[in-house]
Amino acid sequence: MSTVVEKSAAEVAPGDELExxxxxxxxxxxxxxxxxxxxLPIAPCVAALLVMLHDSQDNEFGSVSYSHIxxxxxxxxxxxxxxxxxxxxxxISAKSRPSTxxxxxxxxxxxxxxxxxxxxxGAVSTEVLYLAYKGDSTITWSPACGSYGGFCxxxxxxxxxxxxxxxxxxxxxxISSYKLFSKFDAPAINPIKGIRTAASx
Length: 201
Prior knowledge:
- Helix content is 77%, strand content 4%.
- By secondary structure, the chain is mainly alpha-helical.
- Strands 1-2 form a two-stranded antiparallel ribbon.
- β1 (56-59) and β2 form a beta hairpin.
- The longest helix is centred in the first third of the chain and has 38 residues, at 2-39.
- The radius of gyration is 26 Å and the shape is elongated.
């Protein structure tokens, strides 16, 4: 009888071992893919930041620089923050230890926050560029890009690159959302407790 049990155990063990190795391999592949994806926005973030930092022009009409416009300063800061976060999150993601619930929620929250921040920076800068190219007759704001074409061209390039960053962070946010809600449940809300608290108050 003991011989049969030992034989059955010997037959099952290799299958379990192969299944564990397959699971570990899949987890390692997903971790590598996520790490590379989190590294992806760094290059466009730095490119958009550098293009905007060097955006200035002097001519007979005067001088203009990105630092004179609040929306462009916001764009520079947002790209710098996103580049730093991308590097830090990629380092954390590359570690082999399994993700905990607190880490997953932290990634989810910061990914969402920075996605909206960089999107807002791109949207506000796009509005400023639109006014610079088209002007606004209702407030007697004449187009400025006719006189500062080089400045507007660099600013447009930086904004276009920033929207590439937005696309990268949107994808990262989707992945962190999937990882969080596929592994962990959403925080439970007890409606009865809320009613009792309201009633007692």
